[in-house]
């Protein structure tokens, strides 16, 4: 119940109500479970309240819960579009200290943030690091990366992603096909179609 309430309040950006609900939980001695902490950490990160996200993470760990790669990926996806490089580096270091390795979703969250900030050279470098890492990348992650690169008209990255998909024999989903078809048609690049 409380987790769903927190999720809805963050969506509505009702910060005062979130604080009231947390106070109610504390008064009733209701402790957040792992999913509630994930909602809190991601929610505070989306509100640019990294101090609160950090406090929730510390509280979670103090209660013996170990943050997962999925939690860090949610956090990175929340902050990467606006975070300064040192902020991202801080959270990546926290992941490393927790013994968590980057996965395809980590790279996708970082890539979306870099593209969103207009850091195209860094985006290409990140894609090349991901390709060199040998990670198995789910087709949905390729879709997210392509979408971000298409939105930014980042042609070299689009080519690199297509090349990577071909090398790993990843099947194009209808969504990826439509993304690429629309992009190439808009640019009159009929040879790619």
Top keywords for this entry?
mainly alpha, 193 residues, 11 helices
Task: Please provide a written account of the structure.
- The protein is mainly α and 193 residues long.
- Helices cover 73% and strands 0% of the residues.
- The protein has 11 helices and no strands.
- Helix 5 runs antiparallel to helix 6.
- It is elongated and about 65 Å long.
- The chain starts with a helix and ends in a 7-residue tail after the last helix.
- The mean pLDDT is 87.
Question: What would a concise description of this structure say?
Answer:
Helices cover 73% and strands 0% of the residues. It has 11 helices and no strands.
List the helices and strands and how they pair.
Blueprint: H1 2-12, H2 15-27, H3 34-46, H4 50-62, H5 69-79, H6 85-97, H7 104-116, H8 120-133, H9 139-151, H10 155-167, H11 174-186
Please give the share of residues in helix. over 70%
Uncertain runs are none
Order of helices and strands: HHHHHHHHHHH
- Using the alpha-carbon principal axes, give the shape: elongated
